[in-house]
């Protein structure tokens, strides 16, 4: 078996060492594709798109035929996500009413937790606590800050004094572990996945 075939097999099995080996390469591919001039995203959003891309690629590794296909898949997903984000931002600007008082501060957008009522929030937090119990404390903090507080990958990197790529990889791996632990309850996994996107 060639080295590429062995590496691809290990990636399909979720081998962390194999993912750590290809992560720098795929991270660069995802960032380059997300930084397309067509989307004109700031660096922090490019990092967010790249990290989300790698988390999606990790779930699709089993369907890839080669590392070249994995690279192409990464570039395609990152490009499409960047364009989609730019379109959503543009649409949001068009739907906002013009302000007569530019000096008045605009209202902060609601975070994911602010959209839930108290009962839903309590249920979600209990489910997340169970799913996150298997993670190390630092990864748990990254996931909490990214998905519940709403920090970008750049903000997480600044807060924890770690490279953006490290943060993104740990978040992606943490989410994969949470998903794997939730596979026993597909309905719950579907609800949490929808909430965390």
Helices and strands, in N-to-C order? HHHHHHHHH
Radius of gyration: 18 Å
CATH fold-level label of the largest domain: Rna Polymerase Sigma Factor, Chain: A
Q: Mind summarizing the main beta sheet?
A: none
Distance between the termini: 38 Å
What is the number of independent domains?
A: 2
User: Would you identify the CATH architecture of the largest domain?
Assistant: Orthogonal Bundle
Strand content: under 5%
Shape summary? globular
What is the average per-residue confidence, as pLDDT, rounded to a whole number?
78
What's the number of extended β-strand segments? 0
- Give me the number of helical elements: 9
Please state the structural category. mainly alpha
Provide the low-confidence segments as ranges. none
- The CATH class name of the largest domain reads Mainly Alpha
Q: Could you estimate the helical fraction of the residues in percent?
A: over 70%
SSE arrangement:
Blueprint: H1 3-12, H2 16-34, H3 43-60, H4 67-95, H5 118-132, H6 137-149, H7 153-160, H8 164-182, H9 186-196
Commentary on this structure:
The structure is a single chain. With 197 residues, the protein is an all-alpha fold. The protein folds into two domains: 3-94, Rna Polymerase Sigma Factor, Chain: A (Orthogonal Bundle); 112-196, Orthogonal Bundle (Arc Repressor Mutant, subunit A). It is 72% helix and 0% strand. It has helices spanning 3-12, 16-34, 43-60, 67-95, 118-132, 137-149, 153-160, 164-182, 186-196. Helix 3 (43-60) runs parallel beside helix 8 and helix 6 (137-149) crosses helix 8. The chain starts with a helix and ends with a helix. The model has no long low-confidence stretch (mean pLDDT 78).
